[in-house]
Amino acid sequence: MRPVTRFAPSPTGYIHMGHVSHMLYVWGLADILGGEVLLRIEDHDRQRCRREYETALLEDMEWLGFQPANKVSATASQYRQSDSWKVYAEALRTLASDGHVYRCVCTRRTLARYKRPPDRGEARYPGLCRDAGHPESMSHGLRLAWDHDAPPESFRDGLLGRQAQRPERQCGDLLLRDRLGQWTYQFAVTVDDIRHGVDFVVRGDDLLPSTGRQLRLARMLGGLEPPQYFHHPLVRDKAGVKLSKKQRSPSIRELRMAGVTPATALGEAARAVGLVREALPIVPRDASQLIERAHGGALRSRCAAASAPAGDCSLQRRSLPPTA
Ligand SMILES: [Zn+2]
């Protein structure tokens, strides 16, 4: 069976260059590893996601020439988070039956008082409700109580090398469902990666700190084999800030309307993320070669399963001879 990865956008706006660079990495690494790409619509946040953006995303992907291995139907689909409420509820029951889940009544305002200054990393939930035993009648979110004596989560990123993370120190007890009853990104994505049989995850390096908590959560949910992770650079502006939909970077839709061709947009995306120096027109299948060229050394030394110690890389590159 071919190894599986996923392209998992949130339809909160039209896609821009940052998404296209990410697609080059997802499809390029899938080619290198002989894998296939599932499309998953991550619309767990019902406040911000809109169906019209999902439709636009599918059109833009087709225009760019990226084809996922699955189809996400317009009616209910297991690849759309908003259609998967029951799956998350079932996963929650698994955690709750082991006594790991508690009610948290903290508001944003309460938590803002405990926020760390920006230079000290992400805000850590201080565990205010962990032993409070709040009744169900109060408006509440649900959190996962980490084991504070657990060893750090160690893994070898396919592009960044050896990592060790302590979720209980980074983010504190993990929010699984918010006070509005919405599943959180961390919870939904972990459940999805297990149920969709994801073997390797390709994503921007801004999500590197999420990996330890997702690995630990996956184990608690009974996930058998952790995925291999590849965290790639992001497209950043001149000030080093991640290109996002909130900023005024032109959408792919706008570029299309301005007469830009897919090959030109892809070439520009490759340049923007540092895969090439000069933006020359390319097609999606060129991505693997560009990644090999830009990261070849890292990929070879960290992901050559033939020589890596057990657990370092569960995947074999297509071009490597099979292990004895
Ligand atoms: Zn709380």
Q: Can you describe what's shown?
A:
This protein is α/β, with parallel strands linked by helices. The protein has one domain (4-303): 3-Layer(aba) Sandwich (Rossmann fold), CATH 3.40.50.620. Helices cover 33% and strands 12% of the residues. The chain is built from ten helices and nine strands. The protein has helices at 17-32, 51-64, 85-97, 108-112, 167-170, 185-195, 210-220, 252-257, 262-272, 287-303, and strands at residues 4-7, 36-39, 101-104, 141-144, 153-157, 161-165, 174-177, 200-204, 228-232. The strands form four sheets. Strands 3-4-7 form a three-stranded antiparallel β-sheet. Strands 1-2 form a two-stranded parallel ribbon. β1 (4-7), α1 (17-32) and β2 (36-39) form a beta-alpha-beta unit. The longest helix has 17 residues, at 287-303. The two termini are 19 Å apart. The structure holds zinc ion. The site of zinc ion has 5 residues, from loops.
Strand-helix topology:
Layout: E1 4-7, H1 17-32, E2 36-39, H2 51-64, H3 85-97, E3 101-104, H4 108-112, E4 141-144, E5 153-157, E6 161-165, H5 167-170, E7 174-177, H6 185-195, E8 200-204, H7 210-220, E9 228-232, H8 252-257, H9 262-272, H10 287-303
Parallel strand pairs: 1-2, 8-9
Antiparallel strand pairs: 3-4, 4-7, 5-6
Helix pairs in contact: 1-9, 1-10, 6-7
Bound molecules: zinc ion (ZN).
Summarize the structure.
The chain is an alpha/beta fold and 324 residues long.
Q: How many domain units?
A: 1
Rough outline: globular
Task: Calculate the terminal CA-CA distance, rounded to whole Å.
Answer: 19 Å
Q: Going by CATH, what is the homologous superfamily?
A: HUPs
Shape-level CATH architecture = 3-Layer(aba) Sandwich
Unreliably modeled segments: 304-312, 318-324
Strands, total number: 9
CATH class: Alpha Beta
**What ligand molecules are bound, each kind once?**
zinc ion
Strand content: 5-15%
Mean pLDDT figure: 90
* Tally of helical runs: 10
